[in-house]
């Protein structure tokens, strides 16, 4: 598959994957592009076009074989390549993400959380320990950490980003509502909830 | 402005807005497209193109006037039109969203939370009460609710969506990892965290 798969296709493939997991849970063997399209209220032709991008999509005379299609999406989106992450900020959002049951099945391994609150340090969330933010750099030296998930209050976003950068982590998934200043070799993905919301509500 | 403003432009305008708020907090009067572009690591020409879409962007000889540009983005994105929402599911994610300091300033008013846990019902989060999910329909009859934010555990997603639909709410912002079955007159926006993550990490 071409490496230049578009963001919208990736997004839709993930939603198809959600549907396939439900189908498997319900013991279904086959699924049609029409069934997927109906659930997502999109065009059947769009679904077929997306699935045609996959290698070995599991297409048969009576529909796509659910398990094969699911595996094919996983291969294409690279779920099999595990990425290791720390959650920086053990507030409600950080805890919600630490508990998020899907991360592991999509190849994202939450290794630990970090916080500066002594009442939280040492506690465990979903079997992941909350560590002292002071020890982040040392931790990153001895553990493979690809991505930092930044969930601190927005007013502490930049100073915490500086700590992350100093620790050597090169990717930040930023859930704060601040634009971070980082060196050129560090990539930030802004999880822009307000932007997403505005796209949704623009026409309400 | 054309109603058909693209999702990507909306997303970028929101990020520009974050930057402008920081500039105002720092007492800055002017900002250049280049300064915005550098912070977001995108092309200067892209920023200028986006800002040209705005009415009265506050452009002057020495740069954009920060306050005018901020107001112009707000007018364009419709922040001034308040939308009323309930958060359905007062777990960590629901609580994080209830505390999210930005919703109000972007025209999203969280009226209440709903849960079925008697230990949570009656508590307040960020001055918003947690109400019994059994009372959702009655609540919607007497309060203007435009949007339901769905943050229950994924296994309860569909049955809770059914309750929301029955209450008469027509828009669901879905944070669960399930694709919801809803009637044609109900719109669902899937906040697909895994899809976003995969877009980010596709090339790591």
Structural topology:
2 copies of one chain form a homodimer.
Chain A: H1 7-25, E1 30-31, H2 33-40, H3 44-52, E2 59-60, E3 63-65, H4 66-77, E4 83-88, H5 92-99, H6 102-105, E5 108-115, E6 124-125, E7 128-132, H7 136-142, E8 147-150, H8 157-167, E9 171-174, E10 187-190, H9 193-201
Helix pairs in contact in A: 1-4, 2-3, 7-8
Structural commentary:
- 2 copies of one chain form a homodimer.
- Chain A has 204 residues and is α/β, with parallel strands linked by helices.
- The first copy, chain A, is 43% helix and 20% strand.
- The first copy, chain A, has 9 helices and 10 strands.
- In chain A, the strands form 2 sheets. A 7-stranded mixed sheet of chain A has the order 6-7-5-4-8-9-10.
- In chain A, strand 8 (147-150), helix 8 (157-167) and strand 9 (171-174) form a beta-alpha-beta unit.
- In chain A, helix 2 packs across helix 3 (44-52).
- Chain A starts with 6 loop residues before the first helix and ends with a helix.
- The model of chain A has no long low-confidence stretch (mean pLDDT 90).
- At the A-B interface, helix 1, helix 5 and helix 9 of A face helix 1, helix 5 and helix 9 of B.
């Amino acid at each position: 598959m071409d490496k230049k798969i578009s963001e919208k296709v990736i997004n839709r493939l993930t939603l198809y994957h959600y549907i396939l997991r439900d189908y498997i849970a319900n013991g279904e063997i086959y699924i049609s592009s029409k069934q997927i399209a109906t659930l997502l209220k999109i065009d059947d032709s769009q679904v077929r076009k997306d699935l045609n991008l996959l290698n070995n999509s599991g297409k048969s005379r009576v529909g796509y074989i659910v398990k094969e299609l699911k595996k094919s999406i996983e291969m294409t989106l690279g779920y099999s390549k595990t990425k290791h992450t720390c959650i920086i900020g053990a507030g409600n959002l950080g805890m919600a993400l630490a508990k998020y049951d899907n991360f592991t099945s999509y190849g994202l391994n939450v290794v630990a959380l970090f916080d500066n609150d002594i009442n939280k340090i040492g506690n465990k969330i979903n079997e992941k320990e909350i560590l002292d933010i002071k020890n982040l750099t040392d931790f990153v030296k001895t553990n493979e950490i690809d991505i930092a998930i930044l969930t601190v209050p927005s007013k502490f976003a930049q100073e915490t980003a500086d700590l992350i950068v100093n620790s050597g982590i090169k990717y930040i998934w930023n859930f704060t509502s601040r634009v971070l200043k980082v060196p050129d070799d560090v990539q930030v993905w802004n999880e822009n909830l307000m932007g997403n919301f505005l796209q949704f509500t623009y026409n309400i």
